[in-house]
Amino acid sequence: MSEEIKQSKLDSKLDDSKSRQTGRQTKKLKFTDYAIERYMADFICKKTGKIKKEVKIAFDVGKGTALKGLKLIQYYKTKSKYFLLQFWLDGKSDYVRLGQFRQGVFGAKECQNKVYELVETHTNDEGFWFKHPRLTLHDKKTKITKAEIEKSQQLTIRSVIERIAMDGFPKAKRQGSLSVNSIKQFIKFMFGFNWRSRCLVYAENDKGYGTVSFQHRTTPRKIVKPTSWEDLFNKFPGGTGVITNKKLNPLLETSLYDNDLSKLVIDELNEGMIKKYIDKSNRSYGTKANMLDCFRRLWSFSLDNNLFGDVPPNINFDNITFKKPDTSKSRTKQYDNLRFSDNQLPIIFNALMKRRDKYPFQAEALLFLMFTGRRTEETLKIKWSDVDLENRVITLRRGITKARKEEFVDITDPLSLVLASLKKHREGKYDKYRFIDWLFPTLRTNTQRLYDNQYVRSHSTRMKTLRGCWEDLVQETGIMGSPKMFRKTFSSIAKLTLGTTSKARALTGHEQDATLDVHYDKTSRETAKEYATEVAKKFDFVKKTG
After folding, report:
1. pLDDT attached to residue 544
2. Which of 288, 335, 342, 505 could cross-link to 482 by cystine, CB 3.0-4.6 Å?
């Protein structure tokens, strides 16, 4: 360790010790508009209990920088805040008031520029002040017009984006936060394509609400360790940190937060601006639609939180349209309305049974889809604690179903085969996975962290994709399709077997419509179980080949 570093650490310790001995206040204020805006001084004197007329607080700036000596003063009577610069001239300490803090008009950035200008013109080459800045600034006092004040009280689009993140990405029409996928989408287009988005960890609670936490992420320049949203946006202000690596950002996109459009006051946004921003030729129709949804969330949040002026501008999002292509570029879109044939199902079944060792948990997950017709995203979020072997039923928690209500999957004989295979994995080669509650854990699990209860319970330990096993199966069998076709296939079999669409939907969890009269409550469970048993008979090839 160098003497310089040692001395630095020693000085820090001495300063801390000295401050503790003298009772000196060591708390400092972050030099950001966000921190200054939310700062409120404590005007009550702890010794006397009397009210102070003013309170000064130093900014957290480097000792060796030109900003050394910069403080904020707040007055009790008006609660107004001013920037102060303390300096030494002719052996005496003095100060100069730089201007009143007004976000968007005279904030941290403007103050910083003013200090740099004064230091350059009022100090010598050795850094000593030779001229009093108050004399220079006498005729240059900051004058703010009424219009400027009104504008400073309005939030920019960038500020609204920050507010949404800090408020936990709330839903527009219901209590609670957005789902993980919706949060990811909002972050991607609103402030993603940036190193700031790679500092985030996503999770989902039992109610289906998405959560976001922070982790350090190594960037090409440094290791960033944000601890809060404020910290994240301070480390990556608008226009900085955009990912230019084509592997991570193939189209070299930039988010709204990093675009000049975000500098506008939210009230100034209109339909034409939104359409022009989104409608780029290199973006797919789906991407444009998703971006438009993000703007809707931005707009509804501003309305719900009274972030507009007295007369909120009217934006009709139905008027913002994009041309839909004749054909979709999605690889799986072509399979949306297709199903597997009755002859293909035994072939797929046998192929998956063969792949249980090569693709453990993936093969079983695909079999689960085949025998239940449930959605992939629901299936991969099932836990062993949801499985009731005694009553032969699996509970789908309301947090993982699309309809956000509790649903059930009856354990039929084919499904029992899948559960038995999963149990065999946990008791054999993958016995360490018994600590993980997910029905379908990922093989990418860090087994060295299985002692970490938070990690074990997180979505980091569950399976996210079935692509590897499925693509291997397609290559061998030549059966083209997508795992999503299992849902269509099961629904068709259930409808033909049970006679009505409503009965089939009772098993697959399709959203209710006017014809659906089967509900998952205590009185309908036996009926639903009968339906499941009847449909399971159509998979008789399991007994023949299993």
Report:
1. 59
2. 335
Look at residue 362 and give its three-state secondary structure.
helix
pLDDT 10s digits, 339-377: 899 899 999 999 999 999 999 999 999 999 999 999 999
In this predicted structure, which of 30-39, 192-201, 379-388, 520-529 has the lowest mean pLDDT?
520-529
Same domain membership, residue 78 and residue 177: no
Pairing of strands 81-89, 70-75: antiparallel
Q: Which of 261-275, 287-301, 307-321, 498-512 has the lowest mean pLDDT?
A: 498-512
Which strands, in side-by-side order, build the sheet including 387-388?
387-388, 393-396, 407-410
CATH number, domain of 126, equals: 3.30.160.390
**Do 361 and 284 have their domain in common?**
no
Phi, psi of 450 (to 5 degrees): -70, -10
Where in the sequence is the domain holding 31, given as residue range(s)?
24-137+147-151
Average pLDDT over residues 272-277: 94
- Which residue type is seen at 365? A
| pLDDT for the residue numbered 218 | 64
**pLDDT, average across residues 307-328:** 83
Q: Are residues 376 and 522 in the same domain?
A: yes
Integer Cα distance of 190 and 164 in angstroms: 10
Residue identified by tokens 């030779």 is 130
The two three-digit tokens of residue 281, written as one number: 């030729």
Q: Are 403 and 511 in contact (CB under 8 A)?
A: yes
* Token code pair at residue 198: 């790679």
In a shared domain, residues 345 and 468: yes
Domain boundary among 151, 179, 209: 151
**Residue 139 banded pLDDT, cuts 50, 70, 90:** very low
* Number of other CB atoms surrounding residue 146 within 10 Å: 7
Number of domains in the chain: 3
In a domain, 338, yes or no: yes
Judgement on whether residues 401 and 533 belong to the same structural domain of the protein: yes
Q: What percent of the chain is helix, strand and coil (3-state, nearest 5)?
A: 45, 15, 45
Q: What is the domain-level CATH number for residue 372?
A: 1.10.443.10
Residues 246 and 348 placed together within one structural domain of the fold: no
Dihedral over Cα of 300, 306, 309, 310: its sign: positive
Maximal C-alpha separation, the chain: 100
**SS3 annotation, 373-392:** CCCHHHHCCCEHHHEECCCC
The pair phi, psi for residue 85, each rounded to 5°, is -120, 115
Final residue before a domain boundary, out of 285, 319, 353: 319
Phi first, then psi, for residue 540 (nearest 5°) are -65, -15
Structural contact between residues 53 and 73, judged by C-beta atoms closer than 8 angstroms: no
Give a yes or no: residue 4 inside a domain: no
Residue 494 neighbours by CB distance under 10 Å: 24
| DSSP annotation of 172 | S
Which segment, 53-67, 78-92, 167-181, 240-254, is predicted with the most confidence on average?
240-254
| Judgement on whether residues 425 and 538 belong to the same structural domain of the protein | yes
